[in-house]
Amino acid sequence: MMIYPILKTTQRQRVSDGETVPILSDTDQPQLVLVWPQLGDFDSLEYAWWLQRAKAQLQAQAITVRAVGIGDRASGQRFCDYTGFPPEHLFVDPHAVLHQTLGLYPGLSITLPGLAPGQNAWLNLMLMCAGIGSPGTLAEVLRGYTGDRQAPQLIAPEESVQAGPLPPLQGKVFNAAGGEGFQRPFELATLRLRNM
Predict the structure, then answer these.
(1) Which of 19, 97, 113, 189 has the fewest Cβ atoms within 10 Å of its own Cβ atom?
(2) Cβ atoms within 10 A of the Cβ of 121, count?
């Protein structure tokens, strides 16, 4: 499958102004196009967080970032407000048509009678968070608690993280759980708690 021609002809609703426009820009600059799951999914939230951390590096290399997530414009606006992701670079696909066209894993699609479509979507998301129909999820959740010496440190020593119901934590607190210079135990789990 040739992905670039699909992306080049794809138009979706842009979160910033509600216009339906091509997701790729007419530019000679390199473009990074991200196809995210539901905008409330931990993967989407974490990816937006990583992009914020790499913002200066991406700008220095003149890389234009675009993302397409499953949701409507209102959920896209909430996502951008929460993560700081630029709404002019986020496009929404309420029915995951692009995801289907690209052959991406559709996730669970359990439908319980009496639930609205949005409620069924949240039910499926919660089941997948528990590892049902989502290969690799439980291992990734466990990694959030045990740490990963091959992954970069996530929170700088003087950086403060607010992840209720915990009190604000400074990055140096995680040094007690195993050192520094790598993803320490509980570090990723704390960032995920913030996103809940």
Answers:
(1) 113
(2) 19
Q: In the numeric block, which tokens belong to residue 69? A: 């997530």
The predicted model gives 158-185 an average pLDDT of 87
For the chain, the C-alpha Rg in angstroms (whole number) is 18
Neighbouring CB atoms inside 10 A of 62's CB total 10
* CATH number of the CATH domain containing 30: 3.40.30.10
Domain shared by 128 and 99, yes or no: no
Asked, for residue 91, whether it belongs to a domain, the answer is yes
| Total domains present in the chain | 3
Q: Which strands sit side by side in the sheet containing 20-22, from one edge to the other?
A: 20-22, 11-14, 90-92, 64-70, 31-38
Listed in sequence order, the DSSP H helices in the chain are 3-9, 42-53, 55-60, 73-83, 97-101, 117-129, 137-146, 187-195
What does the pLDDT look like over 136-157, one tens digit per residue? 888 888 998 999 999 999 888 8
